[in-house]
Protein: Replication factor C subunit 2
Amino acid sequence: MASEGRPWVERYRPKSIDDVASQQHAVDVLRKALSSTNLPHMLFYGPPGTGKTSTILALARQLFGPELMRSRVLELNASDERGISVVREKIKSFAMAAVSAPDPRFPSPPYKIVILDEADSMTQDAQGALRRIMEQHSRITRFCLICNYITRIIEPLASRCSKFRFRPLDIASTEARLAHIAEAEGLQLSPEIIPALIRASDGDMRRSITYLQSVARLATARGGDVRSMSAATVSELAGVVPTDVIESLAQSIGINSDESMSTAAGSDFDRISRVVDCIVREGYSCMQVVLQLHDYIITHPLLNARQKAQCALQLGSTDKALMDGGLESLQLLSLSLALHQAVRSP
Structure:
């Protein structure tokens, strides 16, 4: 089969908007637009892997059919093609082109659709030029902007679109989708695998499906059964830091420990430094440690609001330093010492 070599993310992408999981508000509105074929400009925003691109592609497929989509739908990734030249040349020429003949088997409304994925990566000038094109050619062209951060879309552009917020998928919907894919692929999973996939993907359906495919491939490569794969295997494939490592670091910082520990195990600096050195030697991603440490601290029942706020400031500063290319071992040690001071304050 031609689809055998395709990633599961593409193979199991929703074919219609009714297949889109856990986005009931967007699905209800778009279903009405399907029946009336009167589609506004749209702005889909929300976290990655929540079905934004899949929803608009499924809608376009239902409107035009697979054949007519080739001439009626222009899909661009704005993170690659985000300059004003692309807006003026590629998008404008497509928007002003005549609408091709309809397909009688589908609604085929008299307009085209331009899909701009990751539109929050577009420059300010490009967004300004796009605003004018949306005004001039709205009769025969509809635009769908897709982004993770709506605050990066200029207000004149956002105000011309109907906004749809895509939420992280709930656990039940994700479980059902993963179970469906596993059944379609003939996989028999151990009970702990699907919860482990959901924890590792953090509400991102695309990541959870990719991890599931990786687990299946690993089991095949080892000549075993997928049922032999454990939750620890999923964490390893996903690059998630084991819980006991995070708890060990938190304890060295001073969370979940009493005052007698510092005198029994040497100075605070030595204790924290040993744990940080161990994490660095194991090769764990410092960025991943920061993300998981954030969740651990913010949800910790024994820390008060002031302590959590101070910790959040330190975690944010370290995240920025790592994004700017800071040395991971030094940043993690500095963060751990700063968090130690924060949790000791009343």
About this structure: The chain has three domains: 8-165, 171-238, 243-344. The mean pLDDT is 86. Residues 157 and 309 are 35 Å apart (CA to CA). The beta strands are 42-45, 73-77, 112-117, 141-147, 162-165.
